[in-house]
Amino acid sequence: MSDDAFDPAEEVRLRELMRLLRKADAVAATEEELVGEFRIPKSRIPARHLEAIQTLTRTEAAVLRFLGWGRANADIATLLVISENTVRVHLNNMCRKLELDGVRELIALAGVLFHPLS
Predict the structure, then answer these.
(1) Of 50, 21, 54, whose CA–CA distance to 37 is shortest?
(2) Confidence tier at 4 by pLDDT (50, 70, 90)
(3) CA pair distance 43, 33, nearest whole angstrom
(4) Chain segment 78-91, per-residue pLDDT in tens
């Protein structure tokens, strides 16, 4: 089977995973953590980041949210009325606070926290 071939079994597994994630979010919806001014289902926050994520400032949390939505640094700067350099400073501060190896890990975490499952 080539890499481009359609695998119905894989699609079934992915659909089941999405169903389970939605179910976990629904169950955990009553358990939320406040990150900046945003409420996030506690089930989405990795346990190792649970305490550190509470140390983020409101602006850092807003940058993280836009990052999770797939926005570029320039877009985030425009939306928050700050410079692109300030966005990079916030990204680096969050990587330090959350003990991440870099912005790629931060982007992955932001996606887990803020990207909608639907």
Answers:
(1) 54
(2) low
(3) 9
(4) 999 999 999 999 99
Q: Which CATH architecture has domain 8-114?
A: Orthogonal Bundle (1.10)
In contact, 64 and 114? CB cutoff 8 Å: yes
pTM attached to this predicted model: 0.72
Q: Which amino acid is at 7?
A: D
Taking alpha carbons only, the member of 100, 72, 96 closest to residue 84 is 72
Q: Which residues does 114 contact at the CB level (< 8 Å), separation at least 6?
A: 38, 40, 64, 65, 67, 68, 69
pLDDT per residue as tens digits for the range 11-52: 888 888 888 888 876 766 678 888 888 888 888 889 899 999
Q: Break the chain into its structural domains and give their ranges.
A: 8-114
Contacting residues for 97 by C-beta, under 8 A, at least 6 apart? 52, 55, 56, 60
